[in-house]
């Protein structure tokens, strides 16, 4: 069978004072270069750390998409709740929180640039089915969300969903299955780093 490719990203540290790490990247980096096998399907994980800044993300994420034929795209960000949250949708507008570069680090017009896609884009993944499958594997602290935060997480998610609907079709390629997953902060997390990485592997296995 043809080798499939997964684009998986986390984020650099952000906030004031700036922490030494970001839980999302600490999770994702464990999968870098890994081959995940389900039956006769094999997926190679390509992992990248994204900046917490709008203009760089709006340039880097499309470039990553267009550099390879990805079957799966999973973005991971640091959440606030004590559960793993699987985001179901993203908005094009409403981005007013400043990125890591401080004053002026907001997108022009407070919206995701370069796309004429609808204001709300939804993942094509059956999130309820994914949650049920994860529950059978013992991952009980997982829930669906429709509020990705209107910050770099949601901005990135919308960019990827728009890429899937536009440039992939323009290249006559099947659009990748695209998801955003928020992982809990360490102080509220029922899972350790290794367990979060295994949840990400199980998400990949579900999507293959």
SSE blueprint and pairings:
Elements: E1 4-11, H1 23-28, E2 35-38, E3 41-50, H2 54-66, E4 72-78, E5 84-87, E6 89-91, E7 120-122, H3 127-136, E8 142-145, H4 152-165, H5 167-170, E9 177-183, H6 193-207
Parallel strand pairs: 1-3, 1-4, 4-9, 5-8
Antiparallel strand pairs: 2-3, 5-9, 6-7
Helix pairs in contact: 2-4
Question: What would you note in describing this structure?
Answer:
This protein is of the alpha/beta class. It has a 7-stranded mixed β-sheet, sandwiched between helices. A two-stranded antiparallel ribbon has the order 6-7. The longest helix is centred in the C-terminal third of the chain and has 15 residues. It is globular. It starts with a strand and ends with a helix.
Keywords summarizing the entry:
208 residues, alpha/beta, two-stranded antiparallel ribbon, globular
> Unreliable stretches, pLDDT < 50, 5 or more residues?
none
Summing up helix and strand content along with how strands pair, one would put the structural category as: alpha/beta
Q: Main sheet?
A: 7 strands, mixed
* Helix content estimate: 25-40%
How do the SSEs run, as a string of H and E?
EHEEHEEEEHEHHEH
As a whole number of angstroms, the C-alpha radius of gyration is 16 Å
Number of helices: 6
% residues in beta strands: 15-25%
Strand order of the largest sheet: 2-3-1-4-9-5-8
